[in-house]
Design a protein that fits this description.
The chain has 209 residues and is an all-beta fold. The chain contains one helix and 17 strands. The two termini are 25 Å apart.
């Protein structure tokens, strides 16, 4: 708690389990996972995260496929296998969770509240982003949007409940967003299935910074 930067950072880490690792009062992300994979994170609370709104840098949890550490862009293909369960995130100055460039992952029993901008940011950039489950996720009190997407996604499933938020579903106003469900699964937001053809009309165009 009371850290000058992140609560903790995993950089190129694969095959780790975190249980009851709580984070409070940071000036950057609560937890950051960079070009990592096969990470389990469970039964933890993250609160009081970040000092100023800044895209991707002041979130409860930040998962990124890319790292600019001298090799410029590395590790994107290995950014898979996240399994997060029973996490409570509150008081982030950007997003509850920022998730960029992941595949084959699951987020279950996630509770997000009182975040300044977005509840969950889901971003796809250079590599595919697919097979992601959001099982029983709740978002309350996000400043602009609850579940927000930018890019092309496939096989998103689960249930997301959003309350106290201007837009339950949001999308980028600057880049197109598409959803395909070749596996036949469904993603429901506030009880309504988000049909692939309805993303542009159901999800509001909302800036994420």
């Amino acid at each position: 708690s009371n850290t000058a930067k992140e609560g903790f950072v995993f950089h190129y880490v694969h095959g780790a389990t975190l249980d009851r690792v709580n984070v409070a009062q940071t000036t950057a992300d609560g937890a950051a996972f960079v070009a990592s994979g096969d990470i389990a994170y469970r039964n933890s609370t993250l609160s009081g995260l970040g000092a100023l709104p800044n895209i991707g840098k002041r979130s409860g949890i930040n998962i990124s496929a890319y790292s600019g550490d001298g090799s410029i862009i590395v590790g994107a293909e290995s950014n898979t296998g996240y399994d997060f369960e029973n996490l409570t995130i509150s008081g982030a100055s950007n997003s509850g969770m920022m998730i960029m460039g992941i595949r084959d992952s699951r987020f279950a029993d996630i509770k997000i509240s009182d975040v300044d901008i977005i509840g969950i940011q889901l971003m796809q950039m250079l590599t595919p982003s697919d097979n992601i489950a959001f099982d029983t996720v709740s978002i309350d009190g996000a400043g602009r949007a609850g579940f927000w997407m930018m890019g092309d996604f496939a096989n998103l499933t689960g249930t997301v409940a959003v309350s106290g938020t201007p837009a339950p579903c949001g999308r980028s106003p600057y880049m197109p967003t598409t959803l395909t469900q070749p596996g036949g699964g469904t993603l429901a937001i506030n009880g309504a299935t988000l049909a692939p053809g309805d993303v542009a009309t159901t999800c509001a165009a909302v800036a994420n910074f």
